[in-house]
Structure formats: structure tokens, C-alpha cells
């Protein structure tokens, strides 16, 4: 059934109108039909923008429809539609939910093909996904690549690095070296930093040190109520 026969379209439509239609349609296939029908109905006028494309890509990703979602990216490029970093971040997170870190790296590597320059947010997101998926060799390689590309260290990126180092008893001391160096470079450890280290100590049986670090944490004004549970 064509988009024209499915619904009665007004004489003029806007991106906001199409977004509302897509959002109100719970069935993904019907949402796709609405998306396609908008340009079919107004072939001489309406064009999808980054908002409608982005919405449709997120809908596809929520259903793990990765290939159609990436096809939408190609279509955006062909139609000379600006592609924002947020769209790529959505794709990274969707692949992460499906435990596909290599796909995250693959898509990251294609950002510049779509004239989208990755910012610190993309680098740290990809780095964090690799660590969460315990792909530590790739994670450390990616961190080195980040630094080579001039991405500055931050509390957020250092927390991810500390989390990676806390995953093994053999690198836990390296995590503490970074922790102690943070203030020297203008980075103040936060509750997540402390919590990650405390979890690492507890996992390796170093409970006395964990208790001492908890005292240090409270003395430095970090709330133990915000301690993360690190896998």
C-alpha cells in the first residue's frame, strides 16, 4: 500500500509535521512508509533534513536494524544533508547495546567520509565502549590514537582509562599512578574515579586499601553515595 493511500496529507508539510507523524506511529514499518511517503507526496518541494533523518535512524537502531540505519546515512550524504555527530553517537551506542565494538570502530572510521569531524565526545564514547566490552587491547590502542590526534585528557577520559586499568590486578597500580597524577595536571578526581578504584581494590582482595581510599574520598568532598558499580 502506498503512502498516499495510507493517509490524507495536507497541502504543505514541514519537517516538524513529519517528525510528529513518525513519532506517533509505533509500528516501525509504518513509520518507514510515512518517511518515504513524505518525499513521494511532495517530490517537488519537501526534503528530509537532519531532524527527520536522525529520528528515522534512531527508530531503526532501536529495533537493531543496523543496515537500514546506515543506508539512511548514505542517503543523507547523497542528498547533501548535514550529518551531525549526534547521529553517529546514536549508532555507536546501538552497536554497543548489541555488544559489537568492532562495528563501533568501523563506523567511527567512516565519520570523515560523511564530512563529520569527530569531537572529544565521539573519541571518549568509543573508548568507553571498548572498555565496557573488555576489548582492552583495542581500547589502549584507541587511547594512544586519541592522544596522537591531540585529544586532550579530561576527568571523563581519565576515568575511562582508570576503569580499563582496574579490570586486571596486573595493571591496578598503573590506575593509581594516573589517579595520583591527575591533580598535577588540573584534573580533580570525582566520585566515579574513587568508586572505580575502590571496586578494583575490592575485586582483588585489597579491602584495607579500599577502606582507606573511601576515607580519603570523603575527606576530599566526594560523596560515597555516588559510588559506581563497575563491572
UniProtKB/TrEMBL annotation:
PPR repeats lie at residues 84-118, 154-189, 190-224. Keywords: Repeat. Pfam families: PPR_2 (PF13041), PPR_3 (PF13812). Coiled coil: none annotated. PANTHER family: MEMBRANE-ASSOCIATED SALT-INDUCIBLE PROTEIN-LIKE, PENTATRICOPEPTIDE REPEAT-CONTAINING PROTEIN MITOCHONDRIAL. NCBIfam families: PPR. Belongs to the PPR family. P subfamily. This is Pentatricopeptide repeat-containing protein.
